[in-house]
Amino acid sequence: MANVMDSGRHPVPKDPTRRTAAIRIPFPARFSPHAERARRHTLQWLQGSGLLTGEAVTAEYDALRLERLMAYFYPDATGNDLELAADFNAWFFIFDDQFDGLLGVRPEAIERVVDSLVRTMTADGAPQVSGEHGPPLVQGFRDIWRRATVGTPYGWQRRFRTHWQAYMAAHQGEAHNRNAERLPHLEQFLKVRRDSIGVQPCLDFTERCGGYTLPDELHGSSPLREMREITGDVVIFVNDIVSLVKELAAGDVNNSVIVLREQKGCTLEQSVEYIAALANAQTARFVRLAATLPKTLSERGVLPEVRGHIDHYVEGMGHLMAGNLAWSLATSRYDETGIASVSGGRQRPWAYLAVACESTGEGAGRTTPAES
Questions:
Q1: Which of 68, 92, 109, 199 is deepest in the core (most CB within 10 A)?
Q2: Is residue 8 part of a domain?
């Protein structure tokens, strides 16, 4: 397995998060007034779905204040939409924490877990392929999928499903990185990390909150395609800086700072500085691309209503970049408490839910419905 704990040759920076002060994200970090309502709702939903059990576990989760990340991502969302966003964000992080232990180095086991989840994503109105009972991780995702897609256009559902599936499957690629003798170069690493960061489903939800679906020919064309990739990269680079000490404590290698350190043979401090500079270069590129949009859309004859939707979507990308930085510097997930929670072989108390998915055999050898 790739060795990331060679602290004698590569001392860990005392406070790598201070390097985020050098990151320039030129978009306002706005915050929804419905955050507390979303927090209360999601805590009830997590307990009711079995994803959290007991007061101590719930308190540990609540200290992360994950709903505040969604309040930054969707500052203009309705209360109901923000509640749903907070639910799927809670599921995101709980799912991510499943891979801090042995599951994180078992690609075949991850494939079985992913298959059990992918099968829940049916087209609007299509019958479910399994009953209403199952492991909490599967049941929780099924509930989110149903609530998020009800009444939405099939084209948006197809896009949302594709991005969710890519997010889940990327954890197999990260498992291969953990098992490798050497880490991939940064660009190769980012091909997996751009899916595992989960930014694309979050941007899909920007459309849902706005009540529109961008036409495929615009969504997949330049410059929006590149702007989405930039948004994901900036979120990755910020996340990898603020989570660096936590991931070193957990022995994980899926971090661009760690990958670049090995590629360049430099210190962690130097690698952090380089990743921060990459984030700045990407945001500057984003601003330049955004400035070209009015002319590009005019030349393509895009209708004014659709231009308004694109304006909302671009603004939403800015919310993700700015909000991720603001939340990351405030959450306890990356402070001393968060680092201690995954040090010495410890895992979060909700980090064993995927075992139930694997042990039930859900999804093994079955095909997925509504393939697109």
A1: 199
A2: no
Sign of CA dihedral 216, 222, 223, 226: positive
Do residues 363 and 109 touch, judged by C-beta distance below 8 A? no
User: 262-265: long-range contacts at Cβ-Cβ below 8 A with a sequence spacing of 24 or more?
Assistant: 262/2, 262/182, 262/183, 263/183, 263/185, 263/186
Give buried/exposed letters for 77-112 (b at 16+ CB in 10 A, else e). beeebbbbbbbbbbbbbbbbbbbbbebbbbbebbbb
Confidence bin at 280 (pLDDT 50/70/90)? very high
The kind and range of the H/E element at 286 are helix 268-299
Does pLDDT of 1 surpass 50?
no
Q: Is 221 left (phi over 0), alpha (psi -120 to 50) or beta?
A: beta
**What is the extent of the structural domain holding 302?**
32-360
Q: 325 lies in a domain?
A: yes
Could you tell me if 174 and 122 are in contact, meaning their C-beta atoms sit under 8 angstroms apart?
no
* Biggest CA-to-CA distance, the chain: 60
Half-sphere exposure of 141 (CA within 13 A, CB side): 27
- Which of these, 13, 20, 12, 16, lies nearest to 238 by C-alpha position? 20
Cα 212 to its chain centre, rounded Å, is 22
For residue 298, being part of any structural domain is answered with yes
Amino acid at 5: M
Cβ neighbours of residue 139 under 8 Å, at least 6 residues apart? Answer: 49, 50, 132, 133
What the block records as the tokens of 246 is 């936590």
- State the total domains in the chain: 1
Domain annotation covers residue 15? no
CATH number at residue 248: 1.10.600.10
pLDDT in tens, 71-87: 999 999 999 999 999 99
**In this structure, what token pair is assigned to residue 26?**
């030129």
φ/ψ bin of 144: left (φ > 0), alpha (ψ from -120 to 50), beta (otherwise): alpha
What is the pLDDT averaged over residues 301-316? Answer: 98
Predicted model pTM: 0.91
Helix (H) or strand (E) run with residue 83 in it: helix 79-96
- Tell me the CA distances in angstroms from 65 to 181, 206, 327, 350, one per residue in order: 36, 21, 9, 16
